[in-house]
């Protein structure tokens, strides 16, 4: 049965005629799959930190992390839907995300300041991943993907800046 599903996904993918070659659609979807994995991993890390933050900045960080993980939860849907629009199945398992993500898992419960540093690193990782997809999308004249990437870059760069500001003395 799995072979039939793979065959039908392949047949569907090759019958798509949206002005982007199958090879380019696959390459773009591969990049977007990495972006999806990074975004989901950062979502999970941010949600974990929201639950477990303590200390004098508790209320500020608790609310900030909630706003951030809520935004990330919406973003994973947009990214996955763009992958599907290209005719490629979107990854959706922890196993797949673990293989695709550039964001390391955090063991234990770090102190609030360390949480902030780790989230800055995560936001910057997502930014680098998004930026790495641009050449492929531009080469294929894939404006919807370029637009999605631009929006994601704006969010992640701004969020990294806001988090970084909390670390200044």
UniProtKB/TrEMBL annotation:
InterPro entries: DPS_DNA-bd, DPS_DNA-bd_CS, Ferritin-like, Ferritin-like_SF, Ferritin_DPS_dom. GO terms for molecular function: ferric iron binding; oxidoreductase activity, acting on metal ions. It holds the Pfam family Ferritin. Residues 30-168 form the Ferritin/DPS domain. SUPFAM superfamilies: Ferritin-like. Belongs to the Dps family. This is DNA starvation/stationary phase protection protein. It comes from Pseudanabaena catenata USMAC16.
């Amino acid at each position: 049965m799995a072979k039939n599903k793979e065959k039908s996904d392949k047949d569907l993918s090759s019958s798509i005629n949206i002005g982007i070659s199958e090879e380019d659609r696959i390459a773009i979807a591969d990049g977007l799959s990495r972006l999806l994995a990074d975004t989901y991993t950062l979502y999970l890390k941010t949600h974990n930190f929201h639950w477990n933050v303590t200390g004098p900045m508790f209320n500020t960080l608790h609310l900030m992390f909630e706003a951030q993980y809520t935004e990330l939860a919406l973003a994973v849907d947009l990214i996955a839907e763009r992958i599907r629009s290209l005719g490629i199945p979107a990854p959706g398992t922890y196993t797949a995300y673990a293989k695709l993500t550039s964001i390391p898992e955090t063991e234990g419960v770090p102190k609030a300041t360390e949480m902030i540093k780790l989230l800055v690193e995560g936001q910057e990782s997502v930014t680098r991943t998004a930026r790495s997809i641009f050449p492929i999308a531009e080469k294929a004249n894939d404006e919807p993907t370029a637009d999605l990437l631009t929006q994601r870059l704006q969010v992640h760069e701004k969020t990294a800046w806001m988090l970084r500001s909390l670390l200044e003395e």
